[in-house]
Amino acid sequence: ARVGVIVPAAGSGVRLGEDSPKAFVDLGGSTILERCVSGVVGAGIDAFVVVVVPAELVGHARELLPGVTVVPGGAHRSESVRAGLDACGDADVILVHDAARPLTPPGVFRRVLDAVLAGHEAVVPGLPVVDTLKRVDTLKRVVPGDGAEAVTETVDREPLRAVATPQGFTRDALLRAHADDGGLATDDAGLAERCGIEVAVVPGDALGFKITTPWDLRIARMLVS
Ligand code: CTP
Ligand code: MG
């Protein structure tokens, strides 16, 4: 099968709060984006790679990643993925992998790809949730100045999974998932679910964590040092 990998890297990284967009922040001597693309190539899956970056950084990204297709993204993640999809040529299987998960090990790419090749239309890597989860709402008893919230329920975590990327799809499934505007969807499998496509979960890996906050960047920098 011809495999395409779309790397959405067009976000601004508001929660990280660095000066440059998140994918262009340094992680031990190279950018998060370069690390991520090395990880994709290092997974040994022989894929066509399309990287999606902020419009003003297309030229810079092409210099950082010679030989990689780089296209401009959009305001929402789903728009950026669609831009990547348009540049993906005739791939029959497409993996979508966030630039913000640069330490994802090769085994995760292989498990996701193998599951698509085995016949699943949509596949995500997932891990059990370790924290105790509470649903919250506003407090009835208002105590001035403390900003606390009220617990309304303890959620059963047993049937929950925290999912990551790469998320793998048949070309047809990803096209159907993105046929309508994805709006504020945070992942592609969510769009596939809305179309009635069954999404399979395979084991993820803790190293596939997403760099979202300054704390995550600290951990990532320690891991690569
Ligand atoms: N992304 C994208 N285009 C957007 C928004 C996000 O390609 N318009 C990408 C990000 O670059 C990232 C991935 O989607 O690799 C996951 O998004 P997230 O972790 O939310 O990154 P940001 O949107 O950059 O961060 P924040 O939400 O804190 O601003
Ligand atoms: Mg975001």
Automatic annotation (TrEMBL):
Residues carrying the site annotation Transition state stabilizer: 15, 22
Entry GO MF terms: 2-C-methyl-D-erythritol 4-phosphate cytidylyltransferase activity
EC numbers on record: 2.7.7.60
Keyword terms: Isoprene biosynthesis, Nucleotidyltransferase, Transferase
Record-linked Gene3D superfamilies: Spore Coat Polysaccharide Biosynthesis Protein SpsA, Chain A (3.90.550.10)
Substrates-to-products reaction catalysed: 2-C-methyl-D-erythritol 4-phosphate + CTP + H(+) = 4-CDP-2-C-methyl-D-erythritol + diphosphate
Pathway note: Isoprenoid biosynthesis; isopentenyl diphosphate biosynthesis via DXP pathway; isopentenyl diphosphate from 1-deoxy-D-xylulose 5-phosphate: step 2/6
PROSITE patterns in alphabetical order: ISPD
Protein role: Catalyzes the formation of 4-diphosphocytidyl-2-C-methyl-D-erythritol from CTP and 2-C-methyl-D-erythritol 4-phosphate (MEP).
Protein name: 2-C-methyl-D-erythritol 4-phosphate cytidylyltransferase
